[in-house]
Design goal:
globular, 486 residues, disordered N terminus, 18 helices, alpha+beta, Cytochrome p450, 14 strands, five-stranded mixed beta sheet
Amino acid sequence: MHARLPNTSQAAGKYTYPVMATVQRDPSGGGRRPPRPSPLNHVRALRGLLKDPQPVLDQLRKQVGPVCLLGYGPARMAVVGGPREIRDLFANPNESFRWGHPANTLGFVVGRGSMIVSDGEDHRRRRSPVQHAFAVRRLQQWIPMIVERTDEAIDDLLARTGDEPTTLDLYPIERHLILQIVLQALFGERMLRRTDEFGHHFQSLQDYLELPALRQLPHPIPRTHRARAAADRRALDRLIDDEIAERRRHPSGDPLDVLEVLVQDDTLTDDEIRDQVVTLVGAGYDTTAAAFAWMLWCTALRPGVWERLRNEADSVLGPLDVDERPAPGPEQLRALTLADRVVRETLRLHPPGTISPRQTLVDVTVGDVTIPKRTLVLWSAYLAGRDPEAWEDPLRFDPDRFVELTDEQQAQADAAWVPFGGGARRCIGFALAQMELTLLMARFAQRLDVRPTDVKPPAPVGMVVNRPTGGVPVTVARRGALDPSA
């Protein structure tokens, strides 16, 4: 992989920063302090990060470097975007950081008992039973269910559109499908009847998290976004509490029921179980749906990829004109190599989160700079995935860039591909997300013709979840119904 500079024309003009950076020496004798953009641009950079982060990140990386310090005192932030620096960040012990810091507004939504806003022993204790529930063997048993749910969603779509090509937004359709898959994995099939109810409450919470930071400050004022979000969280609590009580009264005995695994674990209180469930549904729903939306855009716009995915699915999952096919399993999943590369390449360019925060409790050295303690670190999978020193032609969507890598190139790609984080805080549902996206991509390509309504991908939107503006408007039809030359 050769280093080539990315095309930054999309970002240029909206946020520009002079190539002036102040470098400070660490008085303790460690590495130098991260450079800063020129003081006049601090306010613009900070406002941009909280409103439309990607153009700002592109400019900071280009003109300041892989690590950049912003703000002062208790409002100090460090943006970390270089693959080497992110690797060093993940190599630090968990005790060097805090996740339950005041700036982490996720706690209001997922609950203070959630593992993602917990630190120290509380984090280890809360994560352990969830990690057990997401063991690889259990995940692999969900493969037939994922394909079955996908087929049902496609059948419903085709029944509504008939045999005529129809222009519509696929985003709400695939979001509903992914929520169904997540709910069945967590609760079993019985919860599917409440999919719309779950979706309504989670949408309210997601809308709240997308508000500007100042509007998320705690307050007791009724009939506000925060008050509505709190009411929706209480409604979710009632739904989950009913399910917890049902598992205690009548265990299902279903080995795939994640909630039952958590209920049977004696290390979590019911409040903690509830917070883990809200976390898992939220993380497995919005982020996966956004990633699949980007996948549909990327594959539909890249000539030949959709057809190659279709041919692979025919070969691995069996042709559609066969009445009976064996249920897919781990062997078929492993054989969907192109679909897997499409997932990896999409997540490289469009990771679920543009920036992810953690606060330093001690001075932390990354690369050749030292980030001082009590700094809010915003590490960026988005920047690492587009780093010109790690990826050849980094803005080009090319699933085949992962084929036949040398050992050195593979190590470089592994360090720069971090959409799920790394270390002990790596996203606990990463294996489910990759498996789900691979199967969805293969099945959609196998059964549908899709033509995008625009010739270029949309701009990203969303502070918490990186999703395409305007969803996925496409012309869709049954396989073979769209004229490929049109």
